[in-house]
Structures are given as structure tokens and as C-alpha cells.
Amino acid sequence: MDALMKILISIDDTDNLESCGTGELATQISQTIAEQGWGTCSYITRHQLLVHPDVPYTSHNSAMCFEATIDADKLGAIIDWSSQFLANNSAEGSDPGLCVAVVDALADVEALIAYGQRAKLEVLNKTLAYQMAVENGLHLSEHGGTGQGVIGALAGIGLRLGGMDGRLKGKVAFSGDRVTFMAEELKDHPWIDAVETEEGVAVSDSAQVMLMDKVKVVRLRHQAVLLVEQNEQGQWQTLTRQKLKKY
Question: PANTHER family from the xrefs (predicted)?
């Protein structure tokens, strides 16, 4: 049996306002890894980075990242395929970047987490991104335009490693027309590890939770968390889209 390896793949700045989003390209990379038998992939997280006039993003300046457990000897094939895929499919005017990290081989996880946090607050440059990549043995590459996307791609790795940032791409769907579920039932969904308040308090498994708007899950404390609150009637319900924007 081939040795297994856990990796993180992050991409940034692949779209424009008219094209399919970076999240869709991340989904296609994830699906190809599974279809080729190279490994299995987790959910994708969206990480919002700094929006600033000095940051030349093409739509919303967010990186997309996912975890994959792969056959170790397929790492090169995954990097090569993903690189070519971004070069061929990123939108006109975008500056795509790709970052791939072998989780168990990282030299300084805390430094990468700190870099990710800085990218939410500061204007960073490619020189620093490449320096961080070299120091941690990461693959970091640009695939069109100015290649500025390497900054955000590396930040996506750091923010995913930190476990306290990001919203899962897509909405959580449940079969049928039900809108109220026990928290225990919700946690049976593969994208939901916990049902908690914004203060980090877990609701009881028997609590009834109403699903509001599109159900979105956020990443907190290295878990996929469905955030809930009590309404005026004292019933538990999921947070509205407006309240989830800060995640």
C-alpha cells in the first residue's frame, strides 16, 4: 500500500467579475484528485483577505483552500496538473497563484498562521511570500498575469492551518422540506462537526434548530461549526446571511 500524505491546496486570484469563481476552480481541482484516484479531499474553505486600493484583486480578494489525503507518490502529478489547469482556466486579467503544503513537513506552522492573519490586515508582497514558501518547503507558483495571487494562495494555507478562519464553500443541503432538526441530526452531516453559539457554547444534541436562509458553515477551532442563536421566542435558529458576512 502506498504511503499516505496530508496536503493543503490553496489558490487565489483566478477569476474576474464575469468568470466562474475561484471556488469553482478549487472544486474542479478537488474533484479531479478524487476522479484520478490520487486521494480524497475535504470541504473547501473561503478566506477573505484585505480589500484595499493597493491590492490588485479581480473580484473579492478571497483565497480558497482544501485538505487532501493523497498517495505520497502522486504529489508531483497533483502539482503539475493543478498548475496547468490554472494556467488554462483562470480568467482573463487575473493573476493566479497556487500553493501546496505537505502538512507534516512544515518547518514553522506558527509563522504561516501569522502570515495568513497579516494578509487580512496588511498589503503584502510576492518577495515575502516566496521567502515564506522556501523556509517551509512549500510549492508556490504563479500561472498568469502578474502572479500576485501567490500572496493570497499562501495566506489561504496559513489561515486554514490556524483553524479559526473561513467559511465553507457552498451551502449545506438536507433532503426533504424540513426546516427544523435536532442538533444531533445536523451533526450527522459530513460538513458539520459542531452546533454552537457565536460565543462557542455548544447546544445540546436534543435541541431543536430552525434552518434560516442558506445554511452556511464556518471554520472555528479546527472544526466545521454551524452557528446558531436564540430568537425572540427562545427558539434556536441558524445565523442569517447578514450576520455570517463577518466570517
Answer: DUF1743 DOMAIN-CONTAINING PROTEIN, TRNA(ILE2) 2-AGMATINYLCYTIDINE SYNTHETASE TIAS
Chain segment 21-44, per-residue pLDDT in tens: 788 899 999 999 999 999 999 999
Write the CA distances from 146 to 141, 143, 151, integer angstroms: 11, 9, 11
Residue 62 CA, distance from chain mean position? 9
Domains of the chain (ranges plus CATH)?
A: 4-167 (3.30.70.2200), 171-244 (no CATH)
All residues at 6 or more sequence positions from 189 whose CB lies less than 8 Å from its CB, including other chains: 172, 174
What are the C-alpha distances in Å from 23 to residues 93, 194, 239? Answer: 17, 24, 22
Q: Name the grid cell of 84.
A: 496547468
Could you report the per-residue pLDDT of 99-146, keeping only the tens digit for each? 999 999 999 999 999 999 999 999 899 999 999 999 999 999 999 888
Residue in this structure with the C-alpha cell 511570500, named with its chain if needed: 129
Lookup: cell for 196:
454552537
Largest CA distance in the chain: 56
C-alpha distance from residue 118 to each of 49, 128, 160 (Å)? 9, 12, 14
